[in-house]
Write a structure and sequence with these properties.
22% helix, globular, eight-stranded antiparallel β-barrel, Class A beta-lactamase-related serine hydrolase, Lipocalin, alpha+beta
């Protein structure tokens, strides 16, 4: 658990946000090491004095956070070999006018689809069946050329999940994710106790009830309801505690930025991966998703490095301060810094000792360090540059895991007597001294040497 002073500070922030932004109710929670370590709520579920107080078990509509569950269901299908992310849509859903877009493009909002439906405001009207939605699928941009957020795209992905499983997307999510994770208070329609969706008048302290309905074929874009306690479990999932429901490699794949949110005149701080929203805040990476539906706002945000996460839920159409979830998480991590793990002696294969140390790419100094399990890390000795980790490839070499050299081969080239001549990394030659004349440097080394 966290220190009482930290809990007091976080609870005060929630109280100030509820009062200052005139929120009928707000509930929030903090996650560390896979556990809900703090939660607080303020206000009543209908915004009226004397009403039921909100708490960590109160349901709120999560809006577009729903998309993250649909995305995981799609990636599980990929991992089972039932689809490929490069598959064109018409390989699995042949009855649409957008059959050439890929599943990856739909997941990352890079398919160029229109943002909303052609019909009435879908968030406020009863949803129709798939056959109605499939005729509304139009393009606003060529596929693969830019980020364009599309709620319709996740209606399509929900139908894809349903078609390949032979049952509704919501049943798939419930049976394959919610039940195994113990998220029993996450449902497709509200179950008491739940907050009422409200709009707060901008110039008077009165509220207007917002409609609630089944979104039909658009439900995968924002239908689910949940609680702070349940979404804390989902934040832990996105932080790496997937309980075997998704591999670490697939989760990392989902968290890689594929489509940058480009706002003219502003730095690139946001992006989308495979169904996940990503933020870059001063070099710190966060993953998760925001959500909004009439009467509700929500956010799940997780530090990609530490797994620390925050959940915020409120029942208002507008008003929650922009960046409030990030403020809570920053306050928590500043007050409760993580203790670094104890350094311990490891096991390094003896053959790696002849490789570690300084290497030179041309005249640039690099360091090669041994890691556990026979892995290596290569990076500049000074300043920023191309750095990557490498794991054994099972054939006497290594393969890059990240950075510029992700997927690229690293191999050791030896002299006839078995001593190391140089390292070959994706055709780049690394030598023990700058431009070592004994190595096979492409283009050769000037025979007169350094002068």
């Amino acid at each position: 658990m966290i220190r009482p002073t930290t809990a007091t500070d976080l609870t005060r922030l929630v109280a100030e946000e509820q009062a200052g932004s005139r929120l009928p109710s707000i509930a929030a929670g903090m996650v560390r090491d896979g556990e809900l370590v703090w939660s607080a709520a303020r206000g009543t579920i209908d915004g009226r004095e004397g009403g039921r107080e909100a708490d960590e078990h109160t349901q709120y509509r999560m809006g577009s956070i729903t998309k993250t569950f649909v995305a995981v269901a799609v990636l599980r299908l990929r991992d089972e070999g039932r689809l490929d992310l490069t598959d064109p849509l018409d390989k699995h859903l042949p009855d649409t006018p957008i059959g050439d877009v890929t599943i990856a493009q739909l997941l990352s909002h890079g398919a160029g689809l229109q943002a909303e439906t052609d019909g009435p405001w879908w968030e406020r009207t009863e949803g129709g069946p798939w056959r109605s939605l499939s005729t509304q699928l139009g393009r606003r941009h060529p596929a693969g050329q830019r980020f364009h957020y599309s709620n319709l795209g996740f209606g399509v992905l929900g139908e894809l999940v349903a078609r390949l499983h032979g049952r509704s997307w919501s049943k798939v999510v419930s049976e394959e994710l919610l039940e195994p994770l113990g998220m029993g208070r996450t449902t497709s329609r509200p179950v008491a106790p739940h907050a009422h969706g409200l709009a707060v008048h901008p110039f008077a302290d009165v509220v207007l009830p917002e409609p609630e309905h089944d979104g039909g074929a658009m439900a995968p874009a924002g239908q689910l309801w949940s609680t702070v306690r349940d979404l804390a479990r989902w934040a832990a999932f996105l932080g790496g505690r997937t309980d075997g429901l998704l591999s670490a490699e697939t989760l990392a794949e989902m968290c890689r930025p594929l489509a940058v949110v480009d706002v003219p005149g502003a730095p690139w701080t946001g992006a989308h991966g495979l169904g996940l929203q990503l933020w870059n805040d001063g070099g710190r990476r966060f993953t998760g998703h925001g959500g909004s539906m009439p009467g509700f706002l929500a956010e799940v945000r997780v530090d990609a490095e530490t797994g620390d996460g925050v959940v915020v839920l409120t029942n208002t159409t507008a008003g929650l301060s922009r960046g409030f979830a990030a403020e809570l998480l920053d306050t928590f991590t500043a007050a409760e810094p993580r203790t670094p793990p104890i350094w311990r002696v490891g096991s390094v294969p003896p053959e790696l000792f002849e490789l570690v140390g300084h290497w030179y790419w041309g005249s640039t100094t690099f360091e090669l360090r041994a890691m556990g399990e026979g892995w290596l890390r290569l990076g500049p000795a000074h300043g920023a540059g191309r750095a990557s980790r490498f794991r054994p490839d099972g054939d006497g070499g290594w393969v890059g895991l990240d950075g510029y050299y992700a997927g690229e081969p690293l191999r050791v080239v030896r002299h006839a007597d078995g001593t190391v001549r140089h390292l070959d990394l994706a055709s780049f030659v690394f030598t023990r001294t700058p431009y070592d004349p004994r190595a096979d440097v492409p283009g050769g080394v000037d025979p007169a040497g350094w002068r």
